[in-house]
Design a protein that fits this description.
By secondary structure, the chain is α/β, with parallel strands linked by helices. The protein has two helices and three strands, in the order βαβαβ. It has a three-stranded parallel sheet with strand order 2-1-3. The N and C termini lie far apart (23 Å).
Length: 61
Amino acid sequence: MNIILLPGFMTDASLWDDLLPTLQAIARVKAIDLSGTTTMAEMADLVPLHRGYDSLAVGFG
């Protein structure tokens, strides 16, 4: 399984650093950095680049 971690507003991918080792024990994990984006459309365009078959996206806003 793939887990894609999405940071919340005003945070970056480092938000997930403490959780990564635990999740990596059970799945392939990618924390996406959205800090360079300025619109929701740009953010949405980044997610499929990291998605694979059998993926789970986790995030908050």
